[in-house]
Amino acid sequence: MSASATPPGDDPIAAATHALKLKRLAGKTGEKPGRKKGRKTARMVRCEVRLTNSEFLDLSRLKKQLARKGVSASKEELIRAGLLLLVHLDRSELKSAIRDVIAPEPATQESE
């Protein structure tokens, strides 16, 4: 798929992936593809993240679901996408998300 080709179908995930690829090819988020003046490259740093087994399985399942829809994404890219989503949450939603990771609600079991 070329950088200027439009994504096939009306799939919003494929469209979002296409838009992100165009931005990445441009070198920074506000720049249009093909422009070379003042081009900055993102500096990558190495970071180790430890996940529980269930979180790792969720990540693998998500990757497979996207692959079935024609979107290939690495686990690293999925984690980075999740970070972008967290950045845009309002304060109360972010607190709730963090609370669920730090101290998740215990599962209720109906024994009777």
Automatic annotation (TrEMBL):
It comes from the Bacteria. This is Uncharacterized protein. Residues 22-42 are annotated as: Disordered. It comes from Candidatus Accumulibacter cognatus.
